């Protein structure tokens, strides 16, 4: 049953954003296999995990993705890691551009924290994103900009300008 599946998932990941509404919406969209037992909707936990991994673009279908809202993911990334400097706005831009896979339920997007670990984090690179305004580009950290230059295999050239006396 769906409520019992959510309890199981909360035992595995107490901070998960998974809830009954999310699973029932995935069932209504025919993205999650289910069965009926009387008036109760029954799901297989292994199939739920496999479906979530498939929707989020993960190849290993044996682990439960650490699903979070964008706001809570940004807060957790800020607390847990020093090497990932991505604010909520940057994550939203990457989600909108498809660099970070997400699940849309209603008007809220859910992402997995595994998207920020190797090998999945390779698609998240700071650079000029279509529709990105200049103010957002200025928010990029210097190291992110350098990483973007290196990932495009371009080496910045230093040009000396001789002053005229």
What would you note in describing this structure?
- The protein has helices spanning 2-12, 20-28, 45-55, 70-80, 88-96, 134-138, 142-151, and strands at residues 35-37, 40-42, 67-69, 103-105, 108-112.
- It has 165 residues and is of the alpha+beta class.
- The strands form two sheets. A three-stranded antiparallel β-sheet has the order 3-5-4. Strands 1-2 form a two-stranded antiparallel ribbon.
- The protein is elongated.
- Residues 126-135 have low confidence and may be disordered.
Q: Classify the beta-strand content into a percent band.
A: 5-15%
End-to-end CA span: 82 Å
Number of strands: 5
Strands in their spatial order, largest beta sheet: 3-5-4
Average residue-wise pLDDT: 76
- By DSSP (H or I, 4+ residues per run), the number of helices equals 7
Residue share in helix = 40-55%
Major sheet details: 3 strands, antiparallel
Task: Chart the SSEs and their pairings.
Elements: H1 2-12, H2 20-28, E1 35-37, E2 40-42, H3 45-55, E3 67-69, H4 70-80, H5 88-96, E4 103-105, E5 108-112, H6 134-138, H7 142-151
Antiparallel strand pairs: 1-2, 3-5, 4-5
